[in-house]
User: Which sequence fits this backbone?
């Protein structure tokens, strides 16, 4: 049996200076890997002054229903840097994170 390697990419989109300080590589759902399915999930959230996340919601995914759970679990483990205004950390709504699942190399469905 050929071993498959997968890549998981995280992209950032926000009007703020919020950044990830700790990134956790998400698990690739086994059924998606077995069926050679690639895709992505994009979240929108609010970064709180302590770096936690609030109001996390999926704003898009492809294919729908495949990667959302794994991406959400990985996102929970990220630590984010809040936006600072006048020396104070402030809530930052509208921060977007996109996690992409891509198989690196040849994939043959099992």
Assistant:
């Amino acid at each position: 049996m050929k071993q498959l390697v997968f890549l998981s990419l995280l992209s950032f989109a926000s009007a703020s200076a919020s950044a990830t300080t700790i990134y956790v590589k998400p698990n690739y759902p086994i059924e998606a890997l077995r069926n050679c399915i690639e895709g992505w999930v994009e979240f929108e959230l609010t970064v709180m002054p302590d770096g936690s996340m609030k109001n996390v919601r999926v704003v898009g995914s492809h294919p729908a229903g495949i990667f959302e759970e794994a991406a959400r679990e990985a996102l929970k483990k990220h630590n984010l840097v809040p936006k600072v205004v006048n020396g104070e950390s402030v809530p930052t709504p509208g921060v977007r994170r996109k996690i992409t699942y891509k198989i690196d190399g040849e994939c043959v469905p099992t």
Observations:
- Strands lie at 5-13, 19-22, 39-47, 53-62, 79-81, 83-85, 88-90, 92-104.
